[in-house]
Amino acid sequence: MSVGIRYVLPGDEALFDRISPDVFDHPVERAQLSRYLVTPGHHLIVAIVDGQIVGQIAAAVHYHPDGRPTELYIDEI
User: Which residue, 1, 10, 19, 26, could crosslink 37 as a Cys pair with Cβ 3.0–4.6 Å?
Assistant: First the structure.
């Protein structure tokens, strides 16, 4: 079994036509996915086996308004 790792970009929405159960908490909505992908600071990486998404990690850059250092918030692994 070969696992591919892919950084998801705008225009990659068709990758989400085949997703293994339990990869996401809820069904992926195409419009919401598109908004996520075009939002600066949002990142999504998926693991793919035989054309099907089998894992994902989502993260967002967190800019603090009080001058603390910028962080990368990892939402899902």
Answer: 10
